[in-house]
Amino acid sequence: MARSCVESLGNKKRAAYTPDMSTLIVIKRTQLGEGDPALGQKVLGTFLRKAIAIDELTTIAFFNSGVQLTTAESPVLAELTMLEERGVDILPCGTCAEHYGITPAVGKISNMDDIIMEMNRATKIIDL
Q1: Is 0.85 surpassed by the pTM of this model?
Q2: Which DSSP string corresponds to the chain?
Q3: Less packed terminus of the chain by CB within 10 Å, N or C?
């Protein structure tokens, strides 16, 4: 089982992570936040470019309209490709991809069993 402790850095504290910790990001739509879609996609692109800095990021799972971000036409395809090349698993939901009639250009089509296994394994889940 993963354990973390807190290291003291003067007045600041941060978690010290052990190697068996993992972080899962869940993306459920094609933009980050509410409001203007163009802004939401731009902010999501920035988030994904910087996401490699997230402690022990291991997996990004895509549900519902979020699976559209894994296609060849995706505005964040370069960012997802970079993360995958750095060892992050990209898991688009197969049922969702089928529903939207898309074929992912990045990642490996997954099923709910695989995604739940990743959720159980993760020590931190970030829901976007």
Answers
A1: no
A2: ---EEEEEETTEEEEEEPTT--EEEEE-SSSSSSS-HHHHHHHHHHHHHHGGGSTTEEEEEE-GGGGGGGSTT-TTHHHHHHHHHTT-EEEEBHHHHHHHT---SSS--B-HHHHHHHHHH-SEEEE-
A3: N
